[in-house]
Amino acid sequence: MLKKIEAIIREDKVNDVMCALKEIGIVGMSMFEVRGHGRQGGVQLVGRAGTYQVNLLPKIQLNIVLSERNLEAALETILKAAYTGETGDGIIFVTPVEDVIRVRTRERGEGAMIYPGDIDERRKK
């Protein structure tokens, strides 16, 4: 079974998370700049013109599709690398993926998700 991780994290932790994922062999991912807020509801900033509320904070969303056997390793890696202990560290969603198709080769399923040097190839060694 394939799973999709959607991790919404702080902008300043993106490089840490991406490097940590690469270290364990997660090589395929997408990244998006997003804006939003969770429990903190935004932040109040003070500037020359006074105090103002910023409700939608800049975040980064990483999307990763991987086999279920690699899910826990990827989640632990993201949690460790994205952690600051402060409000706004982020949130992770995990959902099932019904199918994957590589456009170039028309491979389907887990075979379409294998990359040279990825976590599955490393585990075989």
User: Unreliable runs, pLDDT <50, ≥5 residues?
Assistant: none
Helical proportion, percent range: 10-25%
Strand order of the largest sheet: 2-5-1-6
Q: Hey, roughly how much beta strand do the residues contain?
A: 35-45%
Main beta sheet: 4 strands, antiparallel
First-last Cα distance: 22 Å
* Shape assignment: elongated
Sequence of secondary-structure elements: EHEEEEHEH
Radius of gyration over C-alpha positions, nearest whole angstrom: 17 Å
DSSP strand count: 6
The SS-based structural class is: alpha+beta
**Oligomeric category:** single chain
**What is the count of DSSP helices, taking H or I runs of 4+ residues?**
3
- Average residue pLDDT: 91
List keywords for this structure.
alpha+beta, 3 helices, two-stranded antiparallel ribbon, single chain, four-stranded antiparallel sheet, 125 residues, 35% strand
Describe the fold and architecture.
The two termini are 22 Å apart. Strand 3 and strand 4 (50-54) form a beta hairpin. This protein has 125 residues and is an alpha+beta fold. Helices cover 23% and strands 35% of the residues. The chain is elongated. It contains three helices and six strands. The mean pLDDT is 91. Strands 2-5-1-6 form a four-stranded antiparallel sheet, with helices on one face.
